[in-house]
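User: For documentation purposes, I need each entry recorded in a consistent format: the amino acid sequence on its own, followed directly by the corresponding structure tokens. There are two entries in this batch. Please keep commentary to a minimum and don't merge the entries.

Assistant: Recorded as requested. Entry 1:
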Amino acid sequence: MLDFNYANATVRDVSLSKLAPEQTGIHGPVLAMHGDPTHLFALVKDASTSHYYAMQANEVEHEGSVEFRWHVLAKLGAGGTTYPSRVNIMVDTSRSDRRKLWVGYEEASVSSMPYYIAFGDTGDDEDDGYTNDTDIYADTVKWDANLPRVSKRYESIELETRNLGAGGRQVTVQYKLDNADDWTTLNTATESPIQTLDFPLGTTGKTLELRLTPALTSVGTTAAELHSFRLKAQLRPDATKLYPLTVYLAGKQQTLNGAVSGNPKADLKQLREWDAAPADLVFGTPDKQDSKSVILMPGSLKEQEAHHEHGRVAEYYIQFTLAEV
């Protein structure tokens, strides 16, 4: 889908393949479109099931950038056989008190007469009304912090809302970890403008999905509004084996095979190089365990001079940490 701007003669790609998250099902064919000078609507077939999505596009400005944002108004169909060639939508603004999106489609064994969805601001349509709808929710896409194979510890979520509390207005937060089948209820926010909900201790996973459900306890004319949310989490990489070592550097030392060896000045220089720029090392142990691939942890090198006398090579106590890789 392309948007042509008459004011500056520019064309933008507003296709759902570009603007909609890959995780959603709204990547099927666009079957019908209609609108008025300020509203654009589309009927989109689900990419994998026999359902339709009635969608509305709005131009949203954020930090100087203006982009289209598509919103799902309704998911239509009962899952039966549908006929994509027998669908249509029509925007009706024929009177001052009429703002209706008419939708018509055919589905096998299901009554699917055309019906309408009122749109616009409150009072724009003569049939505007309010209901306590408890099955409207917003799902996020999977969040992995761009590190899909690294575990995270989830601490809390901060909600910025309006109108919560009075009239039973609230927002329920649910979550799923690592593609779980079922949603877990975290808690319900009942205070505005800011409320923080804590995850249970030890909540960890590689990916996180959120479901945010606004609701009222009775029909009212003021909605529960969710303006933003902020998640607090911490990376938890896999555990790394560390080997803290203390060595003594001295000259003329007898090794296990009886030879005399030791060059503390050269040995210390080499350790300093590894501390500044880690290199792949092989770590062997006296008990003949399998050798391990390690690096010297940068910044872990600590030096203490043990002896420095006339006619004698300086000797050192050295501490550093090796990490298995």
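Entry 2:
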Amino acid sequence: MINQVFTTPLTDAPRPSTGQTDRVGDIRWEWDFSAKAWKCYKYVQLLAAQGSADVNFAANGDAVAYSDYSAHLVTPDQTDVEGNLAAGIIVNFANWDGDVSAAYSKRMWIQIKGPATLSQTVAASAAAGDRIDLSSASAADLTFTLHAPTHTAGNDTVPCGVLIHAGNKEVLLDCPF
């Protein structure tokens, strides 16, 4: 369920430290004039890494997956992922860092649709035009990889975008709302 749809820039979004917050699950569409494309963002709650009280380990362009889809709870930690359902990527983290602390319930906006730049190279020799999904590698941090459909119980991979330019780490995201 989409709680509310916005058409204002993320820079105008209320910050948790101001006492005015959006609701977890809110969706925000924004026109990116430089990319000449719409981008879609979702307000989520970020799950800290196991054994970590805070989330200062995350960076712009890092992949996040759902730890609990119905609660809009996401994580960049492979060990906490519910299935292989990509949530999106972290955006504008440096400007929100203080507001993503435990004091403010670790809530932030992630990009879920539209052109984006990843923090890491897409794995498995993906080329422009290839569909991508989340890696199911044993590494703790999530990465995007070439989509290879698998059908193991509870571990189906779902494509979440298309690689635009491998060298520049540019993708067209299409993660679920």
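Summary note for entry 2:
The mean pLDDT is 76.
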